[in-house]
């Protein structure tokens, strides 16, 4: 599955043909990245009906003000783009990392606009706990002079591709970043034909400009089709509602390192005496900002469990 809008989906065959398919019922749980079984419904074989979804290796969720919904499956890597300016949301970053940890997906953090010296220094400071947890943080300075890859400095194109080429050379990578971080620039650097491909899918799905808020799959290596970039520009936060509140600390590596050292086996790590996590916090082995995020997410998931 390479794109979808409402009940309309675009699938790609192993030979690279693009097929417009509809589900048999009114709704479908298919998402970009799914492997699906479909049947042709016309003589040319370019339209079909979605029969079933193959078992998934993993599944990610997004949430907005009203609901949580799945949006991408079978991922190998999460590329999280943050920037020196505007100041990135650590809550959004933590949600993405918790989701990836729970799903068993590799994470790569990309810090953009490091040419803004003072702001970059502050961003590096905020990212120190994540480096300490073992997350790889790469740095770039992508400066766009236009809206397409043709309008970008060739040196920047070479820099970004060289930096990310080996790391993104296999499997499917979901790239995300809030407005202003340079994600569109990055996508255009890595997939110069992205705008044209998006327009083609939009026409095929008859969804016009609204497709720009939905997840899309691009091949990074042309006809070889071994490395893919998935762009999902229309969401703000990862949904965590599928995670059990009692498992939350397991998916935060800095807290997980201290599990098993609590006096009580069912410790919530919030107020109990003899809590290994809180003792590590006191010793400075867990950043205060990270523990506050744990408290906030624990409260959120606790409320959801009562509904």
Explain briefly what this protein structure is:
The protein has 8 helices and 14 strands. With 307 residues, it is of the alpha/beta class.
Task: Note the main attributes of this structure.
six-stranded mixed β-sheet, 307 residues, OB fold (Dihydrolipoamide Acetyltransferase, E2P), Rossmann fold, alpha/beta, 8 helices, Ribonucleotide Reductase Protein R1, domain 1
Describe the structure in your own words.
The structure is a single chain. This protein has about 300 residues and is α/β, with parallel strands linked by helices. It contains eight helices and 14 strands. It folds into three domains: about 5-55, OB fold (Dihydrolipoamide Acetyltransferase, E2P) (Beta Barrel), CATH 2.40.50; about 60-240, P-loop containing nucleotide triphosphate hydrolases (Rossmann fold), CATH 3.40.50; about 245-305, Orthogonal Bundle (Ribonucleotide Reductase Protein R1, domain 1), CATH 1.10.40. A hairpin with a 2-residue loop joins strand 1 (about 5) and strand 2 (about 10). Residues about 145-150 and about 210-215 have low confidence and may be disordered.
Secondary-structure blueprint:
Elements: E1 3-5, E2 8-12, E3 18-23, E4 36-40, E5 47-53, E6 59-63, E7 68-73, E8 77-83, H1 90-103, E9 106-112, H2 117-132, E10 136-139, H3 154-165, E11 171-176, H4 183-190, H5 194-205, E12 216-219, E13 227-231, E14 237-238, H6 253-256, H7 276-282, H8 288-306
